[in-house]
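Hi support team,

I'm opening this ticket because the web form for multi-chain structure prediction keeps timing out on my end. I have pasted the exact lines I submitted so you can reproduce it. The total is 774 residues across two entries, so I didn't expect it to be a heavy job. Is there a limit I'm missing, or should I split the entries? Thanks in advance, R.K.
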Amino acid sequence: MLNITARSDLMRTIIDTLNVVVEEARFDFNEDALNIRVVDPSHVAMIQMNVDAAAFERYEVENSSLGFDLPKMKDLLSLATSGDMVEMDYDKNGQVNINLGKIDRVIRPLDPANLSPPNVPDLPLNAMVDLKGNDLSQALRAARQVGDLVNLSLEDNLFTVHVSGDTDSVNVSYNSDEVNSIECASPVRSQFSLTYLLPIARIMASVDSVRLRFDENKPLKIEFEFADGAGSVTYFLAPRVEGDL
Amino acid sequence: MEHPVQPTDWTERYRPASQKELEGNDSARRRIQSWLKEWDGGMPNKRGLLLVGPPGVGKTTMARAIAIDKGWNVIELNASDERNAPAIRRAATRGSMHHSLFESYDEGERQKTLILLDEVDHLGGSFASMSEKRIHNSFIADEEKKVTIKGDSGGKAELLNLLQKTKQPIIMACNDAMRLWGGVNRRSSEDKVKKLAELIAFKRVSEDARRRIIQRVLKGEGYSIDPGAIDLLVRSNAGDLRALVKDLQTICSITNEHIDLNAVKGMLELGRRDTAVDLFPGLEKLYRSKTAKSAVSIARLLDKDPDQMAAWVTWNNSIVHTNRKSIHRGARALSQADIALPVRFTNRAYRSWYWGSNLSTLAASVIGDVPQGRLSMSYPGFLRRGNEPWRKLGLIEKLADTCGCSKKAATRELFPPLAALHSTEITSGDSLDFSISMALGFAGDEHVALCGLDSRLKATQKIIEKYDKQVEDEKTKSDFSTDVKGSSVNDASAITNSKKASESAESEEEAVEGDDEPQGPPAGQSTLF
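Hello R.K., no limit was hit. The queue was backed up. Here is the completed structure from your submission:
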């Protein structure tokens, strides 16, 4: 049994964020929160998402798992204007009834057995920088103009986004006064693909506090919150293989 | 829901998770092992392996088990996934240039991620690459510009791209390498892939290994089995482990705790598994079969459609059978098959397929005598393209020119009888009869091409010399009587004309189609001049 109502912007944030990594996702509705874990087919990017029951207008749920086709949901939500309510109801017939204003839509959920959630890697990452989503997004968009391989580094309390192309290069730096906070014991640097980073950066552009954790040649971990802190996202990205290694 | 459930499919449940449980193909295993080991020290020359072998012998299972034993992460792309160029790029190519999130990032030896592509011979498209722009556009979110790429298009091309760019080990598996290369540009596709990936052949799994697997599965399930039953099971399986485990699951589902001979017999009676049999051993069995029934059942297991089957039997009958009577009887059955097979095109009587295919296989087997000794069957020469003698040296152009007909008519009407008259493979043919070739004005090397002889052979060179000498002689003679040559040319065109007349309807069509025919204005159309 499942009966929830949510603001359409909340649903849109959830769907858009997950869609950065996958096309299909398994939603685990638990007593007090919605939990989702997805990994992209190349095992390079992963999202772990928690949305507290408090973020929903109504949340009456017995533990259940539903698989959703994200582009399909996106299409449906594109019909909503902000402030609209989305009602979702899962009956015993195995169908999800979604109501959006005058629209009643029936969706057959995907088999959750085929969408088993990945294990979240346990990584000790020593460097941390917390900055405005807009700043990060701008830095990455500047980087995109030069190439795809972006170097993130942290040294002497200076966070740098750097790309060097064949002829051009770009450098965007923030010192400890220009960001929310910074932590770093020793200088670190890792290289990532903008193909993966840019779409998630676009999602985070309006967030005030985006926390990046990384280390020397290790995955990047990005944490941010939405829905006034009721929802949280952790995004993992594996580094590029550099050189012949 | 969180803890893993035992898979209901036994082939999954008993799929070896570690090398220790692997059976068979030891040399292949050692090679995969040493190749994966090379990755520990850097990148090997060839960054991919292509495992080729019959289904169910454990190609991907072996690759996966070895990688997992090394503690590596494995990304798998199966035939059931969508595998067009963007899909492969998204999952494999991008993954191959990154570390994986599931690698261990502890200090010390760095792990790799094995990228495993199953059934690559079923990938679509050719090795010609898909436009980068099209692939790129399939990723963008903009609805207006978005390109949807369906099915498997561009799959093979992206495979090459993957092999060139990867920084992680790639292992591909397929049943039929020939299908992977494809029909067009086969050689160049093969070279392209082999430059980047090493080929490893897998064989069917031995009886002992099959026996051990049966014991392992039954032990796991708590079943016991009679020795006779295990023998029958082992013997009835052609070395396909997936089929073997599936059969076991079927038997166990209808028995309790103990499997006896009758249970196995019952299963084998119920559903004789279609195991595709390797072509040449299968053909040999077909030729050696003593009854019509066994011949037909063997032929059904050969992975050839009826038309191809008829071609294979036609070609190999004359190789295998030495007795003239046998060949004659076989030829009669084959010609019947040849009539029956195309009937489906004219009146959709698909039953004719059945008759046609059975007739052709019967032509191979029950035409009187079972061949003795070693059989040396071969690939039907006429199924090979590009090697036909008429393709050589512009013979057809010359024939068409001399006889004033279209190239198509020359290929189909003129060349076969001329080749037959000269071919040494046919007893009536005589490669030393130069009269026709000379009348047509052929040179020595053209004459031997018409005879279907290999011009590199010494004997052939002698014929060419002889021919050229005779042409010289004729020339000096013709200085006295110019008529000789002219009249024989007329003879040749007389043959042509009578042939044309006999199949006038067809020839007329061809003449219209033949693009080398000089095209005058259509009848009734006046010209500007």
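A quick check on our side: The longest helix of chain A spans residues 8-19. Let us know if the file doesn't open in your viewer.
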